[in-house]
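ESCALATION

Customer reports they have been waiting on this structure for their group meeting. Please prioritize. Original submission:
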Amino acid sequence: MKRLLVLCGVLAGAGLSTTNDAQACGHGCGYYAAPCYSIAWEERKVVCYKPVYETHQREVVVQVCKPRYETVTRDVERVYMKTEWKDEVRERVVPNTVWKDHTYQRCVSVPAWKDVVYDRKVPMTEWKEEVREWTAYETNWKEEQREYWHTTCKMVPETVVRDVVCYRTVSVPCGVSCGGCVYYACKLEPFTQQMSYTCWKPVYERQKQVANVKVPYCVAVKKSEKVKVPYTTWKSEQVQSRVCEYQQKWEPQTVKVPYCEYKTEKVNVKVPYCVPEKRIEKVSYQVCHVDVVPEKRMEKYTTCKMVAYESVVKVPVCVPYVGCK
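Update from on-call: job pushed to the front of the queue and completed.
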């Protein structure tokens, strides 16, 4: 790096000195009449330096914290709540049902039967003969000529030519025997040839024909007939029947009615109480200790190295003119 800086300083000084020489020769500000030198660029080889980075590995001892677990057992005093039952005398109110007689008045309906005569109308049916007329429709047939299309099918012969795949026997060499003779075998080889055959093709023809058909027609005909028609007449008559009439009557009635009476009594009951109780138990738990232990590890580091190389640069040079003193 220091060599590169020194080289850059030398090149800068060379450039300044070249500029001063050019000004002294008359190229600078134009104070002199005739220039004596001209500037030319010359290629020169210069040694330069560039940084090259390399990655290496080295063994380093570092301090590592490693956990170490230890199981510790100790006595722990704990308080538990214990249930104890005690007998106590308590008072309670108990409902008691008592039945008492109660008399009240009630209304009773008493049936009373009596004969009643009333008029009623009875329907009477009478039949009368009447002549009724109605219109009936009869079917008459009439011959008419109707035109219709008749389709006929005719089979026409047709010659068709198509390609047919056939097989022929071809001898194929299979191998050489011990005596040097070639023996052959038969093989079926397919080939295509054109064959013509006759097929029947249907041809349809439509013909218009006339036929006599019977067509039905409906004709209205009036007819009359004697029928029996029912007529209803009403006839009044007297009918006697027994009718029930209810009469209200009040009478006393005694029933038993329940009454609720409350009674206080003493009862022995068991009441739970929570009593604290101390117990000593052994509890095991793990304790974590941190130990600092040296450990060897491989770490990567980078180094920088300056490598020299040659480069071609252009340097300004003052060249005197020919005939200049």
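Sent to customer with the following note: The first strand starts at residue 37 and ends at 176.
Escalation resolved.
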